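Minutes, project check-in
Item: structure for the 53-residue chain
Input as provided by the requester:
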Amino acid sequence: MSPQESTHQVSTTEQRNTASSDLDRMSSLEVVQVMNAEDHKAADAVATALPPR
């Protein structure tokens, strides 16, 4: 196995995010929209993990 090949799993939080793969080609508005959508994903994940009230 070459040094470039890896047998370990990359953590979900460390994987490339395809939604932001072209940030350098996006307008400022598009960048903010991507950031906002990603923030919502985090908030939604936390909400589902909270115990019921």
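Outcome recorded: The first helix runs from residue 28 to 49.
No further action items on this chain.
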